[in-house]
Automatic annotation (TrEMBL):
Signal peptide: none annotated. GO terms for molecular function: hydrolase activity. Keywords: Hydrolase, Membrane, Transmembrane, Transmembrane helix. It comes from the Archaea. The keyword Transmembrane helix applies. This is Glycosyl hydrolase. PANTHER family: RFBJ PROTEIN, UNDECAPRENYL-PHOSPHATE 4-DEOXY-4-FORMAMIDO-L-ARABINOSE TRANSFERASE-RELATED.
Length: 286
């Protein structure tokens, strides 16, 4: 029988943490709460509910909390991550770990959107989610419907491939990209999510932008043809547009604008060729 650990990274979650621990204990051998520098009674309540508590003295971010949790739970066969704010349903843990127990997956991603659009998802969340889903796909080559899900399961052998570099919320996409690079098997299963609970207090636009920047950074190294190809095409289009505008006689006598246009075209072509070169080098390395 596989030994299962559940990780609950938490920051000021004293209201919801007890129920999440108690419900998770029904499906796990151990529930580990990583208290990421909370100023409330998150640690105290977690212990009373029966969880093992690992504490950070300061708030380091979700990525750092997961790193601490995975290090502690590395001897378990399956490690499950769930958000501590109560939006996930621990009763779905058996469904999430099933593909790993059946040796069909190394990582299981819980998704709200397998069956299509979730009408309960706030519009602003879904728009941002779509952008991050597509960016993660371009960076990893793996098409998933819910790349920012915090409800996941990992086989013990998959843990060694993760660097846990970003301390914040970019960790979700980061882990998927690293899994893809190392050819781990990723399967999605359907989960449900509640939105009538208090979630992160971070500005969602700022949070989403920071995640997107992290994805683009990884794309630059892992899939340079996409990164430089897309950016090069945009720059090339802009340069051609400037040149065509000049030739349309709006700025016929302005040699400086023409020079800027040609310079931008050269930069666009350079980015395209650099993307091809970098991609070729990456393929030889593999």
């Amino acid at each position: 029988m596989s030994k299962v650990a559940v990780l609950l990274p938490a920051y000021n979650e004293e209201v919801s943490i007890a129920s999440m621990v108690l419900l998770s204990l029904q499906y796990a051998d151990e529930v580990i709460v990583i208290d990421d520098g909370s100023s409330d009674r998150t640690s105290e309540v977690s212990r009373l509910a029966g969880a093992t508590v690992l504490s950070h003295t300061t708030n380091k971010g979700k990525g750092a909390a997961l790193k601490t949790g995975f290090k502690y739970a590395q001897d378990y066969d399956i490690i499950v991550t769930i958000d501590a704010d109560g939006q996930h349903n621990p009763s779905e843990i058996p469904d999430v770990i099933k593909p790993i127990m059946e040796d069909r997956a190394d990582i299981v991603n819980g998704s709200r959107y397998i069956a299509g659009k979730d009408t309960t998802t706030p519009t602003y969340r879904r728009v941002g989610q779509t952008v991050l889903d597509n960016a993660t796909y371009l960076a990893s080559g793996v098409k998933l419907t819910d790349t920012q899900s915090g409800f996941r399961a990992f086989s013990s052998k998959s843990i060694e491939y993760f660097n846990f570099d970003p301390n914040g919320f970019g960790i979700e996409s980061d882990m998927l990209i690293e899994a893809s690079v190392n050819k781990l098997r990723i399967v999605e299963v359907e989960i449900t999510v509640r939105y009538d609970v208090n979630t992160t207090t971070d500005n969602p636009i700022v949070q989403g932008f920071s995640v997107l920047m992290r994805i683009l950074e990884l794309m630059r190294f892992n899939r340079p043809l996409y990164f430089y190809g897309i950016s090069g095409s945009i720059v090339l289009f802009l340069g051609i547009l400037i040149i065509l505008t000049v030739k349309a006689s709006l700025f016929t006598n302005n040699i400086y604008i023409s020079a800027i246009g040609y310079f931008i075209v050269v930069m666009g072509l350079f980015l395209l060729f650099f993307g091809l070169f970098s991609d070729t080098v990456n393929r030889f390395k593999k």
